[in-house]
Write a structure and sequence with these properties.
23% strand; 3-stranded mixed beta sheet; alpha/beta; Protocatechuate 4,5-dioxygenase, Chain B
Length: 281
């Protein structure tokens, strides 16, 4: 059996998702951060909600989320994302590698924090399965923004959610709230909003989903998704992070920005929606 590489190589850099050249990538991400409006927040940032399409499509909106932590330092960043394909045998997955590679460098994985999270999940009879060489873009796409926005080194707690069951999301949120206290930590929920609707339909669906996010309601987020009134492919990631943030002293959610792919492509007949938000304590 071949040995698993210590560093997870990027399967998406330079392949349409984001720049493969480190200088171009750094410049592009810095531009997204600098072009986003300075947020008016009334507290310390505890968590972010950011989109995960290719940077050319959703990078401008992602910039609004990560602008909130520009110049900040965190020891640990928990990135919670959906799993779009593969590895269906477990509801929750993480990496078997020691680090994630992007063109901007390697980000070490905090396996001590992952072990603690796995122990905390045992109360809900959930397992955190480790996988190697995954091709999931929705977690990795956030990493260059973290690398350019944050100061100093940080370690990563990566979780991919394969199940859209509310109970799984709430249990993960509870487990994160058990593990993160005492750590200088940031949470990031990775999600896009509605998919392949007309611009007018997307605006309505996205506004409904963002309204529940703005109300700090993980239950409302799921209600919107299950009723069809709103849509988010990372609904479970959002609900998990909102659940954890409430338990960790979160006071308010600021919805920062909304856009669609039509803003970039000019095609308003089939768009994908993107939103950015920040939770403060």
């Amino acid at each position: 059996m071949s040995k698993i590489a210590d560093v997870r190589p990027s399967p998406i850099a330079g392949r349409g998702w984001y720049e493969g050249d480190p200088r171009k990538l750094a410049r592009q991400v810095d531009d997204y951060l600098s072009q986003a409006d300075e947020p008016e927040l009334d507290g310390e940032v505890l968590a972010l909600i950011a989109p995960h399409a290719g940077h050319i499509y959703s990078g401008a909106t992602a910039g609004y989320a990560f602008r909130c932590v520009k110049g900040c330092h965190f020891d640990l960043v928990a990135v919670i994302s959906p799993l779009h394909r593969g590895f269906p045998t477990s509801a929750l997955l993480t990496t078997a590698h020691q680090a994630y590679q992007t063109p901007l460098g390697a980000i070490p994985v905090d396996h001590q924090a992952l072990f603690a999270l796995a122990k905390a999940l045992e109360a809900s009879q959930l397992k955190l399965a480790a996988v190697a060489y995954d091709e999931e873009h929705s977690l990795e796409i956030e990493l260059p923004f973290l690398q350019r926005a944050l100061t100093g080194e940080f370690r990563l707690l990566p979780v991919m959610i394969a199940s859209q069951e509310p109970a799984v999301a709430y249990s993960l949120g509870d487990a994160l709230a058990e593990v993160l206290p005492g750590r200088n930590a940031l949470m990031v929920a990775s999600t896009d909003l509605s998919h392949y609707r007309t611009e007018s339909e997307a605006d309505k669906l996205d506004a409904e989903m963002l309204s529940h996010i703005g109300r700090f309601s993980p239950q409302g987020v799921f209600q919107a998704e299950l009723s069809g009134a709103g849509a988010a492919c990372g609904v479970a990631a959002v609900a998990a992070v909102l659940t954890a943030a409430k338990a960790l002293g979160g006071r308010r959610v600021h919805v920062l920005h909304h856009s669609t792919s039509g803003d970039v492509t000019g095609d308003h007949d089939q768009v994908v929606g993107y939103g950015a938000a920040a939770v403060v304590k």
